[in-house]
Design brief:
The protein is an alpha/beta fold and about 300 residues long.
């Protein structure tokens, strides 16, 4: 497999909107507690490489320098879709290693169908192999089986020390703009970089969208690898995952529909809705002092709006 030795800088070729807009939202659920809500519209950076996917992928695209990209994800992975879109836009081959060997015999869901339409070659592996994908021997076996030896490997979700440093700019863009910056967390890479870029008097709040309580250790590990030690004032509140990744509840769906009606902003349910739902709950609990400004990072859009 060969790449493009004279590939242009993806940050230029993909024409992003940076810095992303910061918008104030008038919402009585915050205003009655003296809290100002801002939305950091990272969903507007690029129509197909949305939000933290842009910030985490571009450093990998630069390093790959036109080589084929191989990465990992589940059947509904936003990261797989973003990688496939980047490959199509830049003319770079992409391979997606998908968790769940049984999916190979089923019709592609809309998310994987979009990946395939963007030219991504899908390679399905069983869940045991997927769990061990970071083991060098297992990774080598995956590369051989996918006929992808020589490809540049992007970690699941794009999270790596390289991607964490790419997310530093998100914090720099928000320096001095809010007392608290809140973000939904999957693998923790975006929060690790965001927290490092904020000023010392700002704090970062992460809302995990997965169950398990493993993220704190992972974020510390990523910061240690990216920066040589801990950075920023951050914490996690894991009460708002609604049962785990890709799960919602009728209460969350009702909240999201109401927020969309109030503000005309379609809410992606798996990350963004959980973040804003958590912020409303925390505000009602008095977690933010009167006069505080809270910025929520909008990292994605509903799938049907991300075309």
């Amino acid at each position: 497999m060969t790449g493009h030795p004279c590939s242009p800088d993806p940050a230029t070729a993909l024409a992003p909107l940076l810095p992303s807009p910061l918008q104030e939202v008038a919402d009585d659920r915050f205003a009655r507690h003296g809290v100002t809500l801002l939305l950091k519209r990272d969903d507007l950076i690029h129509p197909q490489l949305i939000g933290n996917k842009w910030r985490k992928l571009v450093p990998h695209l630069r390093t790959a320098a036109g080589r084929p990209l191989l990465t990992f994800g589940g059947a509904y992975s936003n990261h797989l879709r973003a990688t496939a879109a980047a490959g199509r836009l830049l003319g770079v081959p992409t391979i997606g290693v998908v968790r769940g060997h049984e999916l190979a015999d089923r019709p592609l869901n809309p998310s994987l169908a979009r990946c395939a339409a963007d030219g991504m070659r899908l390679h399905f592996v069983d869940r045991s192999m997927y769990r061990h994908k970071t083991d060098p021997a297992a990774l080598a076996a995956v590369l051989r089986a996918a006929d992808a030896e020589g490809a540049y490997v992007v970690p699941e979700g794009g999270s790596s020390p390289l991607a964490v440093r790419g997310c530093l700019d998100l914090g720099l863009e928000l320096r001095g703009r809010a007392d608290v910056v809140a973000i939904a967390c999957g693998t923790g890479g975006t929060l690790a970089g965001l927290a490092a870029g904020l000023a010392p008097d700002q704090r970062t709040l992460g809302v995990p969208v997965l169950r398990g309580g493993f993220l704190e250790e992972e974020i510390r590990r990523l910061q240690d690898q990216a920066f040589g030690g801990p950075r920023g004032d951050w914490r996690l509140d894991d009460r708002f995952h609604c049962g785990g990744y890709a799960r919602t509840t009728p209460e969350l769906d009702a909240f999201a529909a109401d927020f969309e009606s109030r503000h005309g902003l379609p809410l992606e349910r798996l990350y963004v809705a959980k973040l804003l739902y958590g912020l409303v709950a925390l505000t009602s609990e008095g977690a933010f002092p009167h006069g505080a400004t809270v910025a929520a990072v909008i990292t994605g859009r509903p799938f049907e709006d991300a075309s």
